Amino acid sequence: MHTGDWPSTIEDALAVQERLRGRVDRTDDCAELPPTVTGLDVAYGTSDEIAAAVVTLETAGLTVVEERTHRAKAVFPYEPGLFAFRELPPLLAALEQLDHEPDVLVCDGHGLAHPRRFGLACHLGVLTGRPAFGVGKTRFVGTHAAPEASRGSSAPLVDAGEEVGAVLRTQDGVKPVYVSAGHRIDLAHACRLTLALTPRYRLPETTRQADRLSRAALR
What is the C-alpha to C-alpha distance for residues 109 and 91, in angstroms, rounded to an integer? Predict the structure, then answer.
């Protein structure tokens, strides 16, 4: 899908989600520890300007391999559950600048933990064909028990009777994050990778680096 064909109304966007969500691959064919991980994030400026950032890290040492940004005007209104239609055009443009094909995409957002089971990570995975999952800072849908306080503890995130994600403690005694599979990776694998990406901080290093880069791109 090219941005020239991008939906401009809520009704059109909902129809696109309905059409594409059937293409989500819930099987797991992502390498257990892929050579690289690519984080994605956006920052919002004034007058609907968006700066998208993608940062590829070596999975083993979490050192930066390459990073790209793209600035653009939002082409879709601010609407909960449809954020992907604001954020994907600049994110896809930034991804296209990468010299190396991503092994797995890590979104600052959600995948199946979405009212229509088609959050940003699902949408991004379907459009790129790459394994993708989301790590959200806050809950968007569902209910859960509190995971134990130790790093690595988790609890199911359940919405309408379906387990759509996991509430994962990435550091002892800190607020958990919300992990959900997006495309071509399962939830357990996404949680293992999230822990590999959080050796020191609550949020994955992919998100931290992409957040830093997107904010800098606005300046």
Answer: 13
